[in-house]
Amino acid sequence: MKKNAFFININENILIIFLIIFSLLINQYYGNQGVFPVDSFAHFDSGFRILLGEHPFKDYWIVSGPLLDYIQAGFFYFFGVNWQSYIFHASLFNAILTLSTFFVLRNFNLNIYYSFLYSLLFSVLAYPTSGTPFADHHSAFFSLMGVYSLILGIKLEKKIYWILLPIFLGFAFFSKQVPSTYIIVSIFLVLIFFSLTQKKYYWIKYFLISSIFFISFLIFFAKIQQISFSSFLEQYIFYPQTIKEQRFENLNLTYRGLVDHFKFIYISIIPLTYVNFKKILFNNSYFKEKDFCYFIILFLFTFSLIFHQVITKNQTFIFFLIPILIAFSCIYLSSSNNFMRIALVLICIFAVSKYHLRFNEGRKFHELNYVDFTLSSSASEVDIKLKGLKWITPRYKNNPKDEIKIINEIKLHLQNDKRKKMLITNYSFFSIILNEKLFSPSRWYLLDGTDYPLKENRHFSSYKNLLINLINKNNIETIYTIYPLESSIIRTYFDESCFQEIKISDMLMSYELKNCHEINS
Predict the structure, then answer these.
(1) Structural domain boundaries of the chain?
(2) Model-level pTM?
């Protein structure tokens, strides 16, 4: 028996090492395959800006992801300011999530090789779909860590998991408000249900202590960085509500969007749902057992993420649920039901392969599907800090070298302009490659009112004041915009008498600021 235990332990250590290496390398590989500038560089310059002493809410308008900026600043500090340390941020998260999944499955006594396989498949569809740090991913994955903590807290009744639970949920919320808010609400419902059915309230003490510590740290941190509470509330709480209202008004539910698109997720949760409802039918008190709590947690987590995807209409990233749900289906199935377990493994491998080809190989999340990656160029032609990235974008998918040439022309012009300048662009890497502050008032520019307030929005004046304060505080003399951003992005906030528009090239526009009341007010 000792020899067998030793053999299993050696096997487990080898499998863990393999999971770490694989989950790191797969994300590092796909994170280098092309870019969709507005998404791929979402936290690139902003992470660097924090190292330069700028902060969200105070120095640039932000609607999501402040935590990602600070985490990325840490990666830049320790691993260097370059593209590889940027995607290593996502790669390390992929590895941590993969190991956490393996650890949870092993705690439910799932066969070590099943646990390894499902964790491996999870790593394929977790962060590699984006490859780069992304707010939706961080929010969902910190929420998943919270779900794991809740499940283990109920199962093992160890205080560490109850202490970690509010921290993970807080990290999820400060990565992005949704889907974290939906999941936080569902977790509180589960906690109420658990307390009433199990008659256990011990968790409240540890949960409250951890929550108080987390909130106190946030208040202290905001005070140190001079981030006002009113700015946080307006940018992170109130302004996003106006976006949500618009999305609910434009919501159009279809069979394909609600059912067919998520069919493999539904297929994955069916065995889990069937087993639990069957147990309720034959055991009236089953709903009081811990096993039913685990099912409710996974069920609500799954549909919170589906709801989020349906509402936001962003590219789908939640297919990582498939290996998790099928793994728990295997846990709930009778150990003698080998046929069903093998069938579920085959379904999982098929589904993961399907979405791997679409989202990893095809880079669909970053709008790069149907792109010929053999045409890509080395991004080191732009700057050595982008070394390792294969440059190709949706806009210039047939001629990436032309785009690189244009970017280098813009880079040269900005280098030669020694004045204090502001750059408004979705190519959010110029601060890093120029190694200077460029004072962008927002992280990205979608021009649809989802990232900063437009004129008809009730928070318009606040954003305009932030923009004017940035200009005055930093003595900005000119504002540059890079196509496809239109001149309206300047004209919306300033009267034409306040600037002189100059066309530098087909891609680059300059707005020379004049001494007018609107800017000096």
Answers:
(1) 2-366, 417-520
(2) 0.95
